[in-house]
Amino acid sequence: MNQLLVFLLxxxxxxxxxxxxxxCVAHRVIAVARGKATPQQAVRLKKAAITFAVLIALDVxxxxxxxxTASTPPIAGENSIAELLRxxxxxxxxxxxxxxxxxxxxxxxxxxxxxxxxxxxxxxxELGELxxxxxxxxxxxxxxxxxxxxxxxxxxTAQTYIDDGRAxxxxxxxxxxxxxxxxxxxxxxxxLGIFLIGEYPELYHAFIGTGQMVxxxxxxxxxxxxxxxxxxQRGNTALLKKLAANGEPPYYGKDxxxxxxxxxxxxxxxxxxxxxxxxPGYNTLRxxxxxxxxxxxxxNFLRGIVNTFxxxxxxxxGIDLRKDYAKLDVPVYFFLGRYDVxxxxxxxxxxxxxxxxxxxxxxxxxxxxxxxxxxERGKFVREVIACFLED
Length: 391
Fold this sequence. Notes:
This protein has helices spanning 2-33, 39-69, 120-126, 158-175, 188-199, 216-234, 237-246, 256-272, 284-288, 295-313, 321-324, 345-354, 372-375, 377-389; strands at 81-89, 92-100, 107-111, 135-140, 181-186, 204-210, 332-337, 360-365. Helix content is 51%, strand content 14%. The chain is of the alpha/beta class. The protein has an eight-stranded mixed sheet, sandwiched between helices.
């Protein structure tokens, strides 16, 4: 975070230097046009230009140093592991963090929400207790965080994530000499997890989906309707006007992120203020300030949420897990917040009822909304261990 503050301060000084340079240039041009140019003006212009160039060089150097020195904090112990790695998956350069007290423990791959979300710092902060029992791997998917430039955003599809998820799984199996690995998916990652175990069941022991997505189009319509209902109850005419102007989802084009944010942010605020929900939301400033991210990564932390989400999410409207993945050959557990209104739990209950799987269950978190892994992290860790290690 100190690094970010220094960078922001340096950028502000650079902007001021640019304004001074522009003023010097303008003053010099006017003076020349009037025949009143002086050597002092030329000296001031030269000093302003040099100052601006030096500040630009410092900005670039600070960004470069921050990218090179980004790391994940060490874990004490002879057999521990704490690494931040860049891999090439199907020709795309992507980043993962690998953390565990004992690298001979089972491997657990965490799939972040989004598409376009990065949770390298968030998972370390919230679920660090899992590192005692697993080698926890967190993946910045294409178009997110440290992997923002893995491919051009316009080229990324759901299949991109499936293909690269499989490639990453194969890498982890080989590196840690594991026949299969465990999988947790959060929000969008919960759908990606289903895709992976549906396509490649032989690679995974079991799967946990939290904030589980089932039918993307129906979810958006239900979220929109609920936000409108709550706004009417509360007399929020400004929100009602925005919702009416945007119309009912699904949305397509260049404004998907911003139109969806109108009701999703409102529902997130509703959950954050719910008295029954503990530890209600993301600690974004802490997460974006985490040591895993260089300064460019911090910028891409936000760009992924906006740009990648906008491009990929509209491709997902046709997916309904109840139809497309009604039979799975891997044990499946759904960790649901009792007050989740972003991913309606009624859809998950319907899916669980018809799902054919070797084992399946819903674990309820009575003090959670969309993010039980944050809202009730202690219970979340205990339930992960119970489902994965105590079968």
